[in-house]
Amino acid sequence: MLSPTTLFTLSSSSFNSPLFPKPNTFTPSKSNAINAINAPCTKPKLGSNVAHKLSNLAAEFTSLSQPIDRVKRLLHYASLLPPFLDADRVPANRVGGCATQVWVVAEMDERRRMRFRADSDSEISKGFCWCLVWMLDGAKPEDVLMVDRDDLADINVGLGMSLKAHSRTNTWHNVLFTMQTAAKDLL
To answer: For residues 58-92, b (16+ Cβ closer than 10 Å) or e, as one string?
Structure first.
């Protein structure tokens, strides 16, 4: 399986994305450090890698002012999702509550890190899956469990308050819930 960094390298010449900053380019400012210290702590802190990826993902989608641009970005990410084995398209791996067919496979590696694979019969849902796999693959199970569904609010790709937008929000939440349930079961 190619890593997100490798995938980005392969596609970066044709697609410019702030989701994947160049390595070692993040320089925290003094004001950011002060804001972080003064910020109220209302829930456990996500692991730094998951929090960083979530922040980048949110910045990616909020920077796109038009809903169609967010959908196009998801379609691009769908194209990056690695192939999924037909043998894994079984009812036990099916994500419940989604309008489309979505499958998630979760395992824990020898370092006790979560490993995820996912697929869907919908290109937009594949884009959701790629984002969540990119964000959570390789994370500690505890970090997977700390992601709150509200953390995904800034990654809005709905096209207004339609049934489709509600369905897309459910896909995000249902795939996240499935990943978290697997992490809890593997702990």
So the answer is: bebbeeeeeeeebbebbeebbebbeebeeeeeeee
Residues facing 105 on adjacent strands = 117
Catalytic residues, by residue number, are 98
What are the phi and psi torsion angles at 54 (to 5°)? Answer: -60, -45
- Listed by start position, the domains of the chain span 48-186
For residue 75, the model assigns a pLDDT of 95
pTM of the model: 0.72
Half-sphere exposure of residue 146: CA atoms within 13 angstroms, side-chain side: 17
Class of the domain covering 48-186: alpha beta
Residue 178, strand partner residues:
none
Across the chain, which has 187 residues, the per-10-residue mean pLDDT values are 40 40 34 39 62 90 89 94 96 91 96 97 94 95 91 65 51 91 92
DSSP state for residue 111 in the 8-state scheme: T
